[in-house]
C-alpha cells in the first residue's frame, strides 16, 4: 500500500513503512500492558504502526464506522498517538478531551459531539465514564489503556483486548484500504475550546487544516535542512496532546513531519528532573517553564558571593548584547563573539548542564505571553528560544518567531549560501544535539562569526514578539485592534453552532482571533491581550491586564498574578507567591513559617510582596497601578479549575472563586477613581 493522499494518517503510514524497525519513534515509562514502570520502553515506527492497525481493526469490529465520533480522554502518552491514528484509520472523528474535565463537563461534551465510544487512559478515567453513563445513554464501548482489575460491565474493554479483537476480526488489507480512503477534506477531530469566557465550542478541524499547519510550522531554514539531512532529534513531550498546541508542535511537526523521537514525561511538576535525566534536543512548552528557569538561576546567583554575582552580570550582559544584535539584524563583532566564548566558559556552560539543557537545539514558548526579559535571558544562555502564537481554530500556529531570511523571497539554494546554511546546521543543530555548544569552543565560535558576517544580517528573529505570520497566512489589524487572520490552517465551523461560526468571521472571510496586537515595521507581531480581557475602570480608563500581570510575575517571589479592576475605582491583584523561594527567604531571616498560610501571614513576607508590586507600579501609569493585593495560599491549577489545559487563567472562574478576597480589597478602602 502506497498511502499517497496528503493526510495525517497517510503521512504516518508512509514514514512508518519507510523507517520500520530502523528508528525509534516513541519512548515512555509505560510497558506493553499500559502500566507505568520505573524504566523507559522504546517503540520503533514499525511497532507503533502494527499497534495502530490492530487497534483500528478492533474499533471497526466494535462497530465504529466512517464519520462516527470517538472520544479520547487521556494524558499524553504513546497510546494517545496510537489511538489517534487508529481512529483516523477507521474513518472516524476523534474528540480529544482534557483529563481535567468534571463528570458533568465530560457528559456534556460526549452528548454534544455524539461520541459513541470513549478511549480512556486509566481505570479511574474509565470509572468516570461509567458513572457518566448514568446521566447519558449507554455507550457501546468504553476502552481503558491499562489493565482492569475486578468486575466490569460488558461494554468495558482494555486496549490490548481491542487489539486482539481486531487481529481476529478484520484483515490487514481491509484495514489499509480504509486508511487509504481517508480524504484531505474529511473531519479529523472536534476539539473543544478551553472555555475561558463561556461555554466551550467544538472546533471542527479537517485533515487539510492539520496538514497545512504542520508544513507551515516546519518551514524554517534549520528545520528544512534537518529533514533533508535526516538528522533525528529528541522531543520531551509534556504538553497535553488533547490541546492543539502540543499536538501540532510535538506530535505532528516533531514526530510525523520531522521524523524525530518523542519521549513522554508524566507530570509537569517533575519536568525539571526529567529534563536533567533525558537532556532533550527539543522542548515545546509554556512560558511558566522558562520563567521558572529564569527565577531559579537569578535566585541562585543572588545567594552567591559579590565576585560570583559580578561575573554573572558581566556574562549576562555579553549574552544580551549578542541576542540584541541578532534581533536587530546586526552582525556581532568578533570582540562580542569572544566575550560570549568567555561568558560560556565562566557561566553559561555550567548553567545549561545543571539544568539539563546542554543538548537543547530548540525551545519554543506558546500558549501565553512570555516576558521579554525572560526570553532574552534564556537566549543569552545559548538556548534557541522561539515564541509562537495561534489558537485551536488555527490548528495552533499563526505566527512563529523562527530564524528565517528577513526577505522571504531570498533563495537559500545558491551554492555558497547553501554551504553557509549547512555550516549553521552543523553548529546549531547537529553539534548542539550532541552536546557541542557553538559558543563553548574557540574554533566553533570563529566559524559562527564567519557565517554571521556572511548571512547573519539576512536572518531575522525578534525576542519579545511572536514573529511573522507563517507561510501562506495573511493577517491584519482591525480598527479596534483585533488581529484578523486567514490561511489554509484556519477552521471553517464550530460543531453544531452556525450562529457562533458566523460571528467568528468578518463579512469578507477573515477569522476574528479575539486577540489585540500590533505589527512593527518588519512585520513582527506583538500580542497586547485578549480582547475580552480588556476592562474599563469606573473612572473610564481602558486597561489591558496582561502586560501588568507579566511584569508582576517577572518579579522575584511572585509566581502567578491576576489583575482586577473592571468597573472598579482602582486596580487590585490576586498574587500567588513563589513559595519555594519565599520559604528560603523566611529561613534566612529566621522567620517561623512552616506552612503557606503561615508564610503569607508573616508581616515580613507581606512587606516583601508589597515591595515587588510597588516596583511594578513605578513603571506603569497611575491608573494601571495596583493599589491593593491579596496574597493567596494555593497556586492556580488546571486540576482545581483556575487554569485551562494550556495554562491560561480562567478569569471568570478565579474571580468567582476568590470573590471574598476581591471584595475585601474594595470594601471600606475609600480609594479614588482612576
What does this structure look like?
It is a single chain. By secondary structure, the protein is an alpha/beta fold. It has 24 helices and 28 strands. Strands 2-1-11-10-12-13-14-15-18 form a nine-stranded mixed beta sheet, sandwiched between helices. Strands 4-3-5-6-7 form a five-stranded parallel beta sheet, with helices on both faces. Helix 1 (8-19) crosses helix 2, helix 8 crosses helix 10 (244-257) and helix 9 (221-229) crosses helix 16 (415-433). It is globular, with a radius of gyration of 26 Å.
The radius of gyration is 26 Å
Roughly what fraction of the amino acids lie in strands? 15-25%
What average pLDDT do the residues reach?
Answer: 90
* End-to-end C-alpha gap: 69 Å
- Helix residue percentage: 40-55%
- Shape, please? globular
DSSP strand count: 28
Number of helices: 24
Order of strands side by side in the largest beta sheet?
Answer: 2-1-11-10-12-13-14-15-18
* Major β-sheet profile: 9 strands, mixed
Class of secondary structure makeup: alpha/beta
- Runs in which pLDDT lies below 50 for 5 or more consecutive residues are none
